[in-house]
Amino acid sequence: MKLRPEQLPSHLSNTPLRLHVLSGDEPLLIQESLDAIRQQARSSGYDERTQHSVERGFDWDSLIADSQALSLFAERKLLELRFSNKPDAAASAALIELAARPPEDTWLVVCLPKLDGSAQKSKWFNALDAAGAVVTVYPIDAAALPQWLTQRGQRLGLQFEDDALQLLSDRTEGNLLAAAQALEKLQLLHNSQPISVALVASLISDSARYSVFDLADAVLLGDAPRAARLIFGLETESTAESVVLWALQKDLRSLIQISENNALNGQRQVSSAQLGQAGFWAKRQGPAQQALKRLNLKRLHQLHTLLLAIDKAIKGQSNERAWDLLLQLAMAMAGKPLFPLAQAEAL
């Protein structure tokens, strides 16, 4: 059974399953899901809690033997298995056995990192899914964060002015723990009035975590304001310019490849197969389509000339500042060039 994190509380109160799997890379949501399971286990009489950190060489034989041992004096317990990596062969076999023969008087929780597609198709994962409930936690992206903040704020009795909500979203993007802590702080200080921009600005520091992958997505979507904010954030966090250049040039060259092939073949439509072959996986194909509609082949070639200029700036072979050129490239790819076309051609 597959669940979203927000479905877990209702599931726990209505379904007597004793095996749960938590998977993902968003620590706050993983911890809150785990806390909900612990609370329900305690209320169901499973008062003892045992936790194991599973690393290579873990003694599975002893764990399974202990879990299957029957005793007249056994206490109900919650058994937590925490993995820092994908299960190896020994762990996979043990998980299949635990799923097939769940320990008596035990709630079992398996905490896993984010799993790729192959792991989610594995025998051990399917065995756990069939025997219990799997909660997959995904990060809250920039577009969904305001709604997440609104819903969580409402549970705390908070209401926001629109601009205040956007400012809080901007300052905590990519850092849900900071966002949750910010809401709790605002709950203590607000006076039953809607939260204002001034209050957010005065109390909440900039806790955003910036990613070159977020930047690449913003550029494809044509979200120039966010692309600029991400460039400034990446610079502030001392991200290597070469990494930012890699993320942008990877997509730019893929767009050029598609556009050149279509021009050569007299095609105007771009197929999903073309996008996939160029390296755009399913979730990014829509944004890539938008970029191709926004940027014709001539413009893409003009932008490609910036790559050499940025590379020289990174290597100290020019007087240009690499971050300024990276901003120029990102904004132009997003459809909001900082300079007129004539000036861009001269670069």
**Topology as H/E string?**
EHEHEHEHEHHEHHHHHHHHHHHH
Mean pLDDT: 87
N-C termini distance: 56 Å
Number of folding domains?
Answer: 3
* Rg calculated over all Cα atoms: 25 Å
CATH superfamily of the largest domain: P-loop containing nucleotide triphosphate hydrolases
Which fold name corresponds to the CATH topology of the largest domain? Rossmann fold
Helix content: 55-70%
Strands, count: 6
Question: How does the helix and strand content classify structurally?
Answer: alpha/beta
CATH class of the largest domain: Alpha Beta
- Placed side by side, the strands forming the largest sheet appear as 1-6-2-5-4-3
**Which regions contain 5 or more consecutive residues with pLDDT less than 50?**
342-347
- Can you name the CATH architecture of the largest domain? 3-Layer(aba) Sandwich
Question: Approximately what portion of the residues adopt beta-strand conformation?
Answer: 5-15%
Judging from the principal axes of the Cα atoms, what is the shape? globular
Q: Tell me about the largest β-sheet.
A: 6 strands, parallel
Task: Give the helix tally.
Answer: 18
Outline the structure in words.
With 347 residues, the chain is of the alpha/beta class. Helices cover 59% and strands 10% of the residues. The protein contains 18 helices and six strands. A six-stranded parallel beta sheet has the order 1-6-2-5-4-3, with helices on both faces. Helix 3 (60-68) links the parallel strand 3 (48-54) and strand 4 (77-83). The longest helix has 25 residues, at 241-265.
